Automatic annotation (TrEMBL):
Protein keywords: Oxidoreductase
Transmembrane segments: none
Domain of life: Bacteria
Biological source species: Pseudomonas ulcerans
Record protein name field: Pyrroline-5-carboxylate reductase dimerization domain-containing protein
Record-annotated Pyrroline-5-carboxylate reductase dimerisation domain positions: 45-125
Amino acid sequence: MLSYAAQLNRSTVAIYPTDLPSQNLLAPLGSLVVMEDEAAFELATVAACMNGWFYFLLHDLQHWLVDKGLPAHQARTLVLGNLEDCIASARANPHQDLKSMGKAIATPGTFTATGLDVLNHQPGNATWVRPAKWCSMRCSVACRVKAQGRARHAAKSARH
């Protein structure tokens, strides 16, 4: 499973089942995440969908800044740069919970805390989980259908 970032060798690549030749082949494309089982791979599929959703969030944030008067290239640089800053900090602190990292920034009385409070009281905040649940259900169904097809094919092959 790959994202467009595979073209840049910066993709997160989920693999299942464990297969050393496939891992060696795909490793140059970015960070490998070897999934333990098919259920975990289904969740990785949902995470890959999130990748596409992030573009729309970033677009909305960029265009809010543009609507307020920033040139598009500066707005894009600020939005992407702040996301990269967040990711860099999270990667540098792999054992620290992401929420606690955010809380360390959104301290009482800051604009960050005030904005977070606004976000937490919006129905849209819960909206991010809804499509993940929907995709997860669809992936489960698709994987079951695929597994049933493999089982039928194996049974048919065994008879011949």
